[in-house]
Amino acid sequence: GEDVEQSLFLSVREGDSSVINCTYTDSSSTYLYWYKQEPGAGLQLLTYIFSNMDMKQDQRLTVLLNKKDKHLSLRIADTQTGDSAIYFCAESKSFQKLVFGTGTRLLVSP
Amino acid sequence: NAGVMQNPRHLVRRRGQEARLRCSPMKGHSHVYWYRQLPEEGLKFMVYLQKENIIDESGMPKERFSAEFPKEGPSILRIQQVVRGDSAAYFCASSPPVLGEPGNTIYFGEGSWLTVV
Known about the structure:
A: six-stranded mixed β-sheet; globular; B: seven-stranded mixed β-sheet
């Protein structure tokens, strides 16, 4: 079956790096995503990675994929208070149906 | 280019009433998806539609819920005889027909928050 797990909370200080982790069970996952959700708002696609990639970097964001361990991480460099939000990991075999984790609430303190 | 538009953003219904949620996909997108987010949970897939076709409704509750995406107009998610457990955020997403290229992926609307009292 499909299952995506994330830790519930992460607290960091402004300027530090944040690392949000995610594990998934479906070895046939083709695409993995990170979305950001601010309170009362919709989902913002941050980045996605194909399963044949190990790493993807986009400005302050670095995604690492360990396909053998089915582990995905999102590193946010120089975390700012505006990064405080819930971060969802998601996987899919095709783009048509995403399976989401329960989200990691990131709190950035000044 | 406007994003995925959902309305209403907030909807309050009494138990037993009907709720209709509307979604207009991004320009050029012909595929629409509905997801539900219960309080303190992640999003759960409900249904995937193309124009006039339901492609995958494996996540839809068997009763009271229906979805359509007509040839003209927005996609509609309809919940009949709402109960308190239907209170949730309902997110619509859309995508173009050809996926897999950078930027061609699923984009979400800002959600419709349904409260059943």
